[in-house]
Design brief:
Strand content: 15-25%
CATH class of the largest domain: Alpha Beta
Helix content: 10-25%
Radius of gyration: 25 Å
Distance between the termini: 42 Å
Number of strands: 34
CATH superfamily of the largest domain: Peptidase S8/S53 domain
Number of domains: 3
Number of helices: 15
CATH architecture of the largest domain: 3-Layer(aba) Sandwich
Shape: globular
Structural class: alpha/beta
CATH topology of the largest domain: Rossmann fold
């Protein structure tokens, strides 16, 4: 069976969807996975039994491959298919290895073999062995559309600023209808294609938070332009690594990962300058966290300001030029994000909808939860690891939020992984709340957000813009894509970062207020606080298909009533989401500590006290023979001396106290006992 992971770019991008109350997705006719899958030959991802895993570990399998498993039956089968090598899927991260093993992710290995047999034939042989628990083909990630963004030319940039004025010190905010929609941007010949407040409701939400640097959003996409003047200050920096180093300084399994990691090329350098790069990763990042109030270009949802940093962008690169990643790169990127502090996963990719038109889109993807889990068990395991174990019980969120684009096949069903009830998937809308002409909808759709709709706005023409560019999403681009560093894109892959950005803004508010929430609670609130938009899904919507390529020569129409009830809970609403947080969140408390003898841990006490940044702190430990604490530049440096447990207290200069415990043992690890 064929199943292709599709990359959500522009009009033709594809992706999974979900709904507020996820509906089981069923195929009305037959099993929708109909063709041979698109996967990489010469390789399988295999989960072995604990016994075989132990043999492989004894042989030293981590990032380096070995050529024998130690299991006679397994080695005999693999010997039949020519030379082979085994390598652990997930590199050892010394900080999270205990959790990795607890979740069984250490049992997954890459099995590489010769060309004598196909991956399907090898999988059939391996599946008969008791030593093999699960098999995952190394699915290739395909782009549905290879076109680039619509760059904002310099003369158009100047004309926009001159005609619209400057707001919020970011000159292009007046045309960012997706953030602040006054309802007057799309007026022509008496036709109104804009509705006031058909945006993500940032304006009032910004009075509560503009973004907080403690919140990290992992962008799994093309590389992000880390030196863009509107992005540079909000790029995540791994302070435990050394740029250009050939040593894994922080022990996370990746060398030199300063702003993230280039998984497609297995190197630390994030790239954006391939001639075939579209700029999509940078565009997504700009929607979420371009720096606000800096006099540069655009505003963003959670980009802070010129005086206060916003949320941080971690670039997990899965695409480069004509190169597309595979399941192996995807799952490594997902786990990397969780292990290195990201709490929001921004994913503009996924499987083709199980209800997609096969004439236009080829083989359909999974149509049920069971099919998804059977076909992609490793992708499911990695994503669930992020959802359950990103974040911290002592921070703004316990668990993580995975956000997927909803798909651009105009299909009445979401694609996976986004359709999974544990993740959020996003449909796309125009500036009048109507469903975008390309968006998937129906079962599996969680929420909607502005995605742009160029074919709908083709009538809009002024001195600088034709074919409805203003009806798309304006954001940051690498300079080799756009001379100004800005331009337009559309698709559910653009709706997706609006939800990621609003979620990040909500988490920023929690971080600043020293409040805590669980991931499942926040996912529910996203739907509960959405703006209802079903009332706008009525009548006939006229548009011109492929207007960017063909011009307005192929008029078409869509029946909006088909989309009523299918756009998820409504449109994401930042103001209502942030306002609802106080009712369900709890105060963050200073955590209990678990140290090994001779071990150490550093904590910033200001993160656990409301308005804590302006306070000083003192730590008192009941039994100083078990553990100690030194204060340096406002931080607590704890040390474990001998096995035992002791009570302790941290006192702020305003008199507030919090009690906690310190447990020290010889075998202690950061996530429990080894």
């Amino acid at each position: 069976m064929k199943k292709t992971i599709l990359y959500g770019l522009l009009l033709l991008a594809v992706l999974g969807m979900g709904s507020c109350a996820k509906q089981e997705i069923v195929d009305p006719q037959t099993d929708p996975v109909v063709d041979e899958p698109a996967y990489e030959e010469g390789m399988l991802l295999v989960k072995f039994t604990p016994e075989v895993t132990a043999m492989l570990e004894e042989a030293g399998v981590t990032r380096a491959a070995v050529s024998r498993s130690g299991s006679l039956a397994l080695d005999e089968v693999l010997a039949l298919v020519g030379g082979y090598e085994l390598e652990r899927v997930f590199p050892v991260n010394k900080r999270t290895e205990a959790l990795t093993r607890e979740q069984g992710l250490h049992q997954w290995f890459v099995v590489r073999f010769g060309e004598q047999f196909t991956a399907k034939e090898v999988a059939d042989r391996l599946s008969a062995l008791g030593e093999v628990q699960r098999i995952n083909f190394n699915h290739t990630i395909k782009r549905a559309y290879t076109g680039k963004a619509m760059p904002l030319k310099r003369e158009a940039l100047e004309a926009l600023i001159a005609s619209r004025g400057v707001s919020n010190n970011d000159p292009l905010l007046p045309v960012q209808w997706n953030l602040i929609n006054r309802g007057d941007l799309f007026l022509q010949d008496g036709v109104v294609k804009g509705v006031k407040d058909a945006d993500v409701q940032c304006e009032q939400a910004w009075e509560m938070s503009r973004g907080d640097e403690q919140i990290i959003v992992a962008v799994l996409d093309e590389g992000v332009c880390v030196d863009h003047p509107d992005l540079r200050a909000n790029m995540w920096v791994n302070t435990d690594e050394i740029a250009g180093s050939k040593v894994d300084n922080d022990g996370n399994g990746y060398v030199g990962d300063i702003h993230g990691y280039n998984f497609i090329k297995d190197m630390p350098s994030i790239t954006t300058n391939d001639i075939n790069d579209t700029g999509h990763g940078s565009h997504v990042a700009g929607v979420i966290a371009a720096v606000n109030n800096n006099g540069e270009g655009i505003s963003s949802i959670a980009g802070g300001s010129d005086t206060k940093p916003g949320v941080k962008i971690m670039s997990c690169q899965l695409f480069s030029g004509a190169m597309s990643g595979t399941s192996l790169q995807v799952v490594r990127a997902v786990k990397y994000a969780a292990d290195n502090g990201a709490v929001v996963l921004q994913c503009s990719w996924g499987f083709t909808s199980g209800a997609a038109n096969s004439y236009d889109w080829g083989a359909a993807g999974p149509a049920t939860q069971e099919q998804f889990e059977a076909y992609a068990p490793l992708e499911k395991a990695a994503l669930d690891y992020f959802v359950h174990y990103a974040g911290s019980p002592n921070g703004p969120i316990e668990g993580g939020i995975a956000v997927f684009a909803g798909g651009n096949e105009s299909a009445p069903m979401a694609g996976y992984p986004g359709a999974d009830e544990k993740y959020i998937s996003v449909a796309g809308t125009a500036a009048d709340f109507t469903a975008a002409v390309y968006t998937n909808y129906g079962p599996g759709t969680d929420i909607s957000a502005p995605g742009g709709d160029q074919d709908y706005y083709y009538e809009y023409v002024d001195a600088t813009h034709n074919y409805g560019e203003l009806g798309c999403i304006l954001s940051t681009l690498p300079y080799h894509v756009s001379e100004t560093g800005y331009g337009y894109m559309e698709g559910t892959s653009m709706a997706c970062p609006h939800v990621s950005g609003v979620v990040a803004l909500a988490l920023s508010y929690l971080s600043e207020q020293r409040l805590h929430i669980k991931a499942e609670q926040l996912r529910e609130l996203v739907g509960q606080t959405a703006t209802p938009i079903d009332q706008y899904q009525t009548g006939i919507k006229k548009y011109c298909r492929y207007v960017a390529d063909l011009g307005p020569i192929r008029p078409m129409q869509m029946n909006l009533s088909d989309y009523s009830g299918g756009m998820g809970a409504g449109q994401i609403n930042a103001t209502q989401l942030l306002a609802a947080l106080d009712g369900v969140s709890v105060e963050v408390r200073f955590p209990n500590l678990y140290l090994k003898e001779g071990g150490a841990e550093v904590l910033d006490p200001a993160r656990y006290f409301k308005q804590g940044d302006g306070l000083s702190y003192m730590v008192s430990i009941v039994d100083p023979t078990i553990a100690g604490c030194d204060m340096f530049q406002g931080r607590c440096y704890f040390k474990g001396y001998k096995t035992g447990t002791t009570a302790a207290t941290v006192t702020a200069s305003n008199g507030e106290q919090q009690s906690f415990s310190i447990t020290v043992r010889k075998g202690a690890g950061g996530n429990g006992w080894l």
